[in-house]
Specification:
Distance between the termini: 10 Å
CATH architecture: Up-down Bundle
Number of helices: 5
Number of strands: 0
Order of helices and strands: HHHHH
CATH superfamily: Nucleotidyltransferases  domain 2
Length: 132
């Protein structure tokens, strides 16, 4: 794995570890924020590893489109992409109309964490296989 991509993966792994700790302590908003950040960083690490350009974005869908357009496949459902894209702003800023129609609960966090762990696994495997 290229050096810069490795740094992104380390940070993403840290976000995912933090999400687990936050969930254990029922700090649900922060848990979701760290999950979204982890997924975003895993996708960016993949683009960096394959030397594919991307613009600054927090959109999981936009990153997935760039990956797909470059023949890089990471499995995630459209519903999960949409959900992850609803997390960034509401968990970072209490912006009135930007808040989602729900407050995070443990089940939502557990489901999001499962998606993030699947992406973590795929990215680790994909980047490791490219080093072989």
């Amino acid at each position: 794995m290229r050096g810069s991509a490795q740094q992104w993966v380390v940070f993403a792994d840290e976000n995912l570890s933090a999400a687990n700790l936050l969930l254990d302590n029922l700090l649900l908003n922060a848990c979701l924020h760290n999950i979204q950040q982890a997924v975003e960083k895993y996708l960016k690490a993949t683009l960096i590893h394959f030397e594919k350009p991307f613009k600054k974005t927090h959109s999981i869908r936009e990153l997935m489109i760039i990956l797909s357009n470059n023949g890089i496949h990471i499995e995630i459902s459209d519903d999960d992409i949409d959900f992850l894209d609803t997390i960034y702003l509401p968990t970072k800023y209490p912006l009135g109309s930007a808040l989602p129609d729900f407050y995070p609960d443990k089940e939502i966090c557990e489901n999001a964490l499962a998606v993030a762990k699947q992406i973590q696994s795929q990215v680790h495997q994909l980047l490791a296989s490219q080093n072989s």
